[in-house]
Amino acid sequence: MSRKTLQKARMRKVRHRRVRKSIRGDSVRPRLNVFRSLKHIYAQVIDDSAGATLLSLSTNTPEIRAQLEPEMDRRAQSRLVGRILGEKMKSQGVSSVTFDRGGYRYHGRVKALAEGVRECGLEF
């Protein structure tokens, strides 16, 4: 890896740690964490007070993989993951979450995932 790539990854982790100091999820309002790689996007709903992951979805999940179409771009895939995540959270009785963007800019795929969750009625 190049020095610039390593520096970007290091700075993202610094931003994520800084934001995580103030963001906590609990059973009433869990934390929605986002991680994106070059090909996939991952989302976890976490209850920090219990130290448990309530729900986890990604573009690698078989349920979502079956719904992906070959011509879908990564932003549309992120929105699909967000919609399905929102539906599942609504069925579990969660109406609001704390959004943890993982040190990424609120832009592109991260924003598409958040909009997909909001389409299902969850509040941030």
Descriptive notes:
With 124 residues, this protein is of the alpha+beta class. It has one domain: Nucleotidyltransferase, domain 5, CATH 3.30.420.100. Helix content is 41%, strand content 19%. It is built from four helices and four strands, in the order αβββααβα. The protein has a four-stranded mixed sheet. α3 runs parallel beside α4 (109-119). The longest helix is centred in the first third of the chain and has 18 residues, at 3-20. The relative contact order is 0.18. The mean pLDDT is 95.
Strand fraction equals 15-25%
Low-confidence stretches: none
What Rg, in angstroms, do the CA atoms define? 15 Å
Percent of residues in helices: 40-55%
How many DSSP helices?
4
What fold name stands as the CATH topology? Nucleotidyltransferase, domain 5
Overall number of strands = 4
Cα shape: globular
SSE string, helix = H, strand = E? HEEEHHEH
Domain unit count: 1
Instruction: Give the CATH class.
Output: Alpha Beta
Q: In order across it, which strands form the biggest sheet?
A: 3-2-1-4
What multimeric state do the chains show?
Answer: single chain
Global structural class: alpha+beta
